[in-house]
Amino acid sequence: MEELVTLDCLFIDGTKIEANANKYSFVWKKTTEKFSAKLQEQIQVYFQEEITPLLIKYAMFDKEQKRGYKQSAKNLANWHYNDKEDSYTHPDGWCYRFHHIKHQKTQTDFQQEIKVYYADEPESAPQKGTVYERTLSKLES
To answer: What is the pLDDT of residue 1?
Structure first.
């Protein structure tokens, strides 16, 4: 009884040692690799079914969850889009129509196509005033 094989030592070199027994047998390397691959697949299936996927937050995630952002007029989701005219209508009633496409290249050589929209009455649009106020405050400070 004293010389029984224990689980203190584990050999993964093709030798199969049965627990609490005094016998061992040789296992082929391909068999152990196939078993390992099947086991990995079973683990992946288990994690996909049983465990909820992890969520990596993007930059605006926390801000989008706040009530103030959801109800804000600055949020483009609150603007009405007209397919036929390709225009956006601000919640206050100002209409912004498509003007041109701006092509821009980032530092990582990614080509962007940005649609530019202008207001029907750009001089009296309230959003223009906020843009000018921001630029003036930056220049003054």
So the answer is: 45
Hey, where are the domains in the chain?
1-54, 75-140
Q: Is 95 exposed, middle or buried (0-12, 13-18, 19+ CB in 10 A)?
A: middle
Task: Take residue 133 and report the two structure tokens written for it.
Answer: 């106020």
Q: Average pLDDT for residues 121-136, to the nearest whole number?
A: 60
Concatenating the DSSP letter of every residue in the chain gives -TT---TTS---SSEEE-TTSS-EEE--HHHHHHHHHHHHHHHHHHHHHHSPPP----TTHHHHTSHHHHH-TT-GGGSEEETTTTEEE-TTS-EEEEEEEEEEE-TT--EEEEEEEEESSTTT-HHHHHHHHHHHHHHH-
Q: What does the alpha-carbon distance between residue 68 and residue 61 come to, in Å, rounded to a whole number?
A: 14
Find all residues with CB under 8 Å of 49, minimum gap 6, and list them.
none
Q: Which amino acid is at 94?
A: W
Residue reference for tokens 């079914």 = 49
pTM of the model: 0.47
Q: Pick from 78, 60, 58: which is nearest to 70 by CA? A: 78
State the amino acid at position 101 in one-letter form: I
